[in-house]
Design a protein that fits this description.
The protein has about 240 residues and is α/β, with parallel strands linked by helices. Helices cover about 35% and strands about 30% of the residues. It has a single domain, classed as 3-Layer(aba) Sandwich (Rossmann fold), CATH 3.40.50.1580. It is built from seven helices and ten strands.
Length: about 240
Amino acid sequence: MTDQAEACAIEPKRSRSEPLLGPLAFLVAVEADLRPLLREVRRQAQPVYQDRWLRAFRFGSGTETVAWGGPVLGAPQAALLLEKLVALGSRRILFLGWAGSLDPALKPGDLFLPLRAVSEEGTSRLYTPEPDPQAPPGWSGEIAKALGESGWAWRTGTIWTTDAPYRETWGKIAAYRAAGVAAVDMETAALFTVGAYRQVAVASLLIISDELSGPRWRHGFRDPRFREARSRLQEWLLQRAIHL
């Protein structure tokens, strides 16, 4: 009786019309980043599958497909798409998103690779009572190594994930900063949690888009460093798509 009560009513599954994916997948949060990425991927790879949220391609003479998912906004949507990727065969997922900085040293255009997340979103708690998930060290380490080989500078640390960006109070920001939290986003904690639950490797690579480290919120959406970082990172993802 207990087992039946704890069993999920809906399990993520692969339908007959959906492809069996290779182990590598990219999950992109922002449509403005995903759109140019897909445009270039279509020039270099053979499309295998496409729906509203997921596209799969085969590069060169390879037999495995590389999936590109998104856009996603917030923990629930990111977790839903991650569940689908896992059901279709993905085992190493790299998430690309944006984050706000709590640390004055992090500026728009900087890269942040979270190794731990503090969850203030609701999705994670439905998978585990543990509130603060961590990134799998092996996969995040591979991403860090690849970044280093390409000449990137980046920071690692802890990220705060929230469902409510308009409820990021200055009191919370000060408390999280004092606890050593470097940035805030809306997806990473849930992705780490679902990844651990499904026993797949999930890494999160974030571009700092705005600052919450000073007396006022400062957005960097038009900052040349932010725009350049987005463009350069898109090129990097394309170059590494077959090698990560």
